Amino acid sequence: MKCKHCDKLLKLSQYKQNDTWKSCPNCSRANGQMHVFYRYPDKFGTTAQRSSPSHPEGAQSYCTCCRSDKVADLSQAKTCDQI
Ligand SMILES: [Zn+2]
Ligand SMILES: [Zn+2]
User: Fold this and answer.
1) In a domain, 47, yes or no
2) Of 15, 22, 43, 65, which sits with the fewest C-beta atoms within 10 Å of its C-beta?
């Protein structure tokens, strides 16, 4: 499924505004229309095990809510067209 705003796959993490916002693939899939973004890294966390050349700090893929099976905190979220 692709984002209606940027035409990229919802399951791919997107970064905006100098990596201060990142999309959560799980929340984006739940939205079904557009990428759902949260503040990065605050709402994701990092781990050295996920370190990569583009993001050496090691971004967690899913937001903290999705990783802990909590209901997504959509009051903190922005959709792709809002950033
Ligand atoms: Zn998008
Ligand atoms: Zn999420």
Assistant:
1) yes
2) 15
Work out how many domains the chain is built from and give that number.
Answer: 1
Which ligand lies nearest to the CA atom of residue 3 in the structure?
1
State the pTM of this model.
Answer: 0.93
pLDDT tens-digit series, residues 69-81 = 888 888 999 999 9
Domain that holds residue 37: 15-82
C-beta of residue 67 within 8 angstroms of C-beta of residue 60: yes
| Neighbouring residues of the ion ligand 1, judged by CB less than 5 Å | 3, 5-6, 35, 80
Looking at the CA of 7, name the nearest ligand: 1
